[in-house]
Amino acid sequence: MARFVLRRLLQSAIVLLGVTLVVFLLLQLVPGDPVRVALGTRFDQQTYDALRERSGLDRPLVAQYVSYVSHALTGDLGVSFRSGQPVTTIVLERLPATLSLAVTAVLLALLVAFPLGVLSAVRSGSALDHAARVFSQFGVSVPDFWTGIMGILLFAGVLGWLPPSGYVALTEDPAGWASHVILPATAVGLVTASILTRFIRSSVLEVLSEDYVRTAVAKGLRARVVVVRHVLRNALIPVVTVVAVQLASLVGGVIVIEVLFAWPGVGRLTYDAVQARDYPVLQGAVLFVAALFLLMNLLVDVLYARLDPRIGAR
Amino acid sequence: MKTSSPAAGREAEPVLDIEDLTVTIGTRRGQARAVAGVDWSVRAGQTLALVGESGSGKSMTVLAATGLAPRAARVTGRVRLLGEELTTLSEPRRRRLRGRHVGFVFQDPMTSLNPVLTVGRQVSEACEEHLGMTRRQARDRAVELLDLVGIPSPGRRVAEYPHQFSGGMRQRVVIAMALACEPALLIADEPTTALDVTTQAQIVELVADLRRRLGTAVVWITHDLGVVAGVADTVAVMYGGRIVERGDVDAVFAAPAHPYTRGLLAARPDPERAGGDLPAIQGAPPSPLELPPGCAFWPRCPVRGDARCEHELPPLVEVTRGHEVRTFYPGGEDA
Amino acid sequence: MSAGSDGTVRRALSALRHDPPAVAGTLVLLLLLVVGLAGRWLAPAGTNDVDVEKMLRPPSLDHPFGTDELGRDVLSRVLAAARVSLEVGLVSVGIALLVGVTVGLLAGWYRGWVDNVLMRGMDVLFAFPVLLLAVAIVAVLGPGLVTAMVAIGVVYTPIFARVTRAGVLSVREQVFVRAAVSIGASDARIIRRHVLPNIAAPLIVQTSLSLAFAILSEAALSFLGLGVQPPAPAWGRMLYDGRGFVTEAWWLGVFPGAAIFLTVLAFNLVGDALRDVLDPRQLTVSEARRSRA
């Protein structure tokens, strides 16, 4: 177990180093002088020199990279070309909004996907199963921002029940937060629910055909006990990992929905940084999300090993 | 060990009595008749061997009788377990009877245990379900059972997972699991096929010993006549969903009356006849989707009697007392 | 083309015929192809015929999908945008296929350090959420049709590399490949004659499914203004421009979104049907991890 964790840790570290390289090189790909591009019409020599100095762009590439990584390790992701604020602060400020949206979306998705996935597998071939398959096929094909727009049209426009966009912090006004989060979370969660329904269904189906399930039935256990104790325990191990990874990818992946709903999260920050050509903020947000994604994957694999005694033993 | 005797007069009444059992399975390519009008019974302390190639219906007979047939299967006939008719019973009641009085050992011990539950839990859960034991009592019972099937230091191993056991040891766990509620009947479906030869012999010996000590009735399903001689009292040979020959093991082995049984016996590796080719039966068993109207073995039969074999189903007739066979030519062409 | 991949294609086609959803998906794709090629002539009006007299008109006989905030005919724009979506989808998946298969072949065939370096590189690309990486790439290269294609292509490369590598590893252990190696056939020949036909099935399935995700990604990029640049029409951009008016002019939200949905659905239906025949296995964890555009 310890060796397994150590090996995964090392692998993740190597990949993370690769990630920093990609993120670092992003800035080098900007055609022309990124600082000049960023300043655009607001150009003045003094600001330009200061930013140029801070970003260390005059030094050799390797030295720049080494300094980028060593700074990143201490949590220093540079300063914004726009506001001069540290990137780390800016990103962390946006994290709660994104997390609250992503977690809500995944919870909503699970609420639908878990019963639907399990039931459609246990009653495979039934009308419910067909409905579940149509649902998940549609769900993975629908762009979440379209669902969002349709939601705005119906619930904010026609019915007038919900605000069309905006954000209230959960800590300040839970009810206000809830009324604002429900549309974007549903739009995002629908896709997640479809992916999870499919995955849970196929995972449960696979376990249902295992010999040990027949053994359990032969013991005369109640159907519910067979499903809960023997089928779900095995079927949900891979599902846990997929849920966690979906959550991780939502933290960095809800850019479009955050833009549509004016939700001030990391995705919206990324979008604003792109619009403003604020490259350090863009780099910081991307690196942060990718690191979080890797960390989540690592945790998931360790969790997987804990849940499945066969892996833990290796 | 034997603490209860569920049915009075169990010695006289068969533990499991099957009459005219037929199983048809609806498939995409039509109705498959997996089992056709089979009857047999098994008494306490007795071992019945069901012999046949894969697809002969031997496993399906037992699964259908105990309510474990696939959903697409239609089962008709009468099945009495300890005098109680199972076919008309609701599934919850049948489930309770099945778990309480029938134990199953399946072919592959590598896949028939749940990888994420400890072996102790898997042995004990039936005791909780059917004997109303507490978790603690059931666990103690599991240790006892693991000891009974010859697993060393059962007190420690009860908390281990299946992947920590060897193949032979796993099959012992499966047997312990099957015996958890002291069932009247043990169904062993090819329990040694997936094991190496030495382990096979140990498992055969273990089951024979347990049957003697516990008085359990055993149905042993196999394609290997070599195993049958060692474990069974009576044998029923199945072909194309029907019984083609049955009787006491000694009688059938001494004078096999059906050409198929003779073929199976001849195809058995014999240590005394070392070297030389094994005479195999030519051809393949018939598809349950298109069984011939007459004798199912006719297309492969070395005797190849006459047109009657092709068009008319031979009845099961007695050749000697308690030895029945389904052929027009018992004993070969000149009989 | 060798017998192996020939059989694969034939099996795929015959399977599609007997699967109603796949037939529907194929018909939608054919229709889309016609629209993509001939949209300009099918459209009732020009894509950029601004007419301020006719702003935000609801659907009518003259304008079946209504008009937008500049009085342009929405139907004509939706039809014209089909071409953009298909182009970006096909070219980006083409890039991913070409690069991914090459990387996967090299890694799986030569193994050792080649495998290590290439696949760790793919792991790095795999570590980013799909859309985030695409946005970052487009942001630095500058928005536009070509950069969107490149960005989406890069993002979907690792999955092709993984599928290919897994296929190569299993194929190269098979007897006929070992035999070919032993009689001294060249690597290129063995790969072309034996390896590629044998990994064709999973690649065909992956291509179809990736097309669906690539088109979703293109729509998302163009929604963010990072795809094809105005005044050229794109479904995602139409939704973005219309989002402010959507409560008064529902048709601005409904039609471009429905076009994206139908296109993606069609590719998914065909992809799933292909998977059922060519590569029947359960959904894997890494696939499910990736199935968000």
TrEMBL record, chain A:
The lineage of its organism: Bacteria, Bacillati, Actinomycetota, Actinomycetes, Micromonosporales. The keyword Membrane applies. PANTHER family: DIPEPTIDE TRANSPORT SYSTEM PERMEASE PROTEIN DPPB-RELATED. Belongs to the binding-protein-dependent transport system permease family. Keywords: Cell membrane, Membrane, Transmembrane, Transmembrane helix, Transport. The keyword Transmembrane helix applies. One of its GO terms (cellular component) is plasma membrane. One of its GO terms (biological process) is transmembrane transport. Residues 95-304 form the ABC transmembrane type-1 domain. It is found in: Cell membrane. Pfam families: BPD_transp_1 (PF00528), BPD_transp_1_N (PF19300). It is a multi-pass membrane protein. This is ABC transporter permease. The chain crosses the membrane at residues 99-122, 134-161, 181-200, 235-261, 281-304.
Automatic annotation (TrEMBL), chain B:
SMART domains: AAA. PROSITE patterns: ABC_TRANSPORTER_1, ABC_TRANSPORTER_2. SUPFAM superfamilies: P-loop containing nucleoside triphosphate hydrolases. Transmembrane segments: none annotated. GO terms for biological process: peptide transport. It is found in: Cell membrane. GO terms for molecular function: ATP binding; ATP hydrolysis activity. The keyword Cell membrane applies. Keywords: ATP-binding, Cell membrane, Membrane, Nucleotide-binding, Transport. GO terms for cellular component: plasma membrane. It comes from the Bacteria. InterPro entries: AAA+_ATPase, ABC_Ni/Peptide_Import, ABC_transporter-like_ATP-bd, ABC_transporter-like_CS, Oligopep_ABC_C, P-loop_NTPase. The keyword Nucleus does not apply. Residues 16-265 form the ABC transporter domain. It is a peripheral membrane protein. Belongs to the ABC transporter superfamily. This is ABC transporter ATP-binding protein.
UniProtKB/TrEMBL annotation, chain C:
It is a multi-pass membrane protein. Keywords: Cell membrane, Membrane, Transmembrane, Transmembrane helix, Transport. GO terms for biological process: transmembrane transport. This is ABC transporter permease. Residues 82-271 form the ABC transmembrane type-1 domain. It comes from the Bacteria. GO terms for cellular component: plasma membrane. Belongs to the binding-protein-dependent transport system permease family. It is found in: Cell membrane. The keyword Cell membrane applies. The chain crosses the membrane at residues 21-43, 88-110, 122-155, 203-229, 249-271.
